[in-house]
């Protein structure tokens, strides 16, 4: 029975996550959350706590699911930072193309609505964005590039990643989104290439 109950809680959390993801925090009413999860207000509060507490659990759930996919993509190509970034964007593009989930990104949606969030929730969103940047930065190892360049590239990659989510919500086509990701990867490759050029010239 405990396994069945846990399954139901996770399923309800996923449904609530989709409501926040689609509507944003401000427009995710308790009625909409209850309708999606199949729980009345009493059961909703009893299971997840307040709306703010439920929102934080949904953010954590989202970060757990997609964070694991990002981590796998970024660590699958050691020594090849450009391929790692390509794999990173592939995760995002696959999620955007998945018809079973809302368009965009829950973290990007939440960041855009930061004025409506309480400070604790804002801090969580900022922390999740920083975690994504740290993951990308770890994958961007290059013997010829200085730390500042790699830090800036990591921030750039995360910024592009979030822009893909926003563009998808605005109706950008798959072709356009893939073009943005491809150009971003070219920028990463060119930047790392320029960092290596002085060493190559010196050796020549």
UniProtKB/TrEMBL annotation:
RNA-binding found in the keyword field: no
Q: Which domain of life is it from?
A: Bacteria
One Pfam family named in its UniProt record: TetR_N
Task: Please name the SUPFAM superfamilies in this protein's record.
Answer: Homeodomain-like, Tetracyclin repressor-like, C-terminal domain
Q: Where is the HTH tetR-type domain?
A: 6-66
Q: Which InterPro entries match?
A: Homeodomain-like_sf, HTH_TetR, Tet_transcr_reg_TetR-rel_C_sf
Q: Which UniProt keywords apply?
A: DNA-binding, Transcription, Transcription regulation
| Residue ranges of the annotated DNA-binding region, renumbered to this chain | 29-48
UniProt name for this protein: TetR/AcrR family transcriptional regulator
Q: Which organism is it from?
A: Streptomyces huasconensis
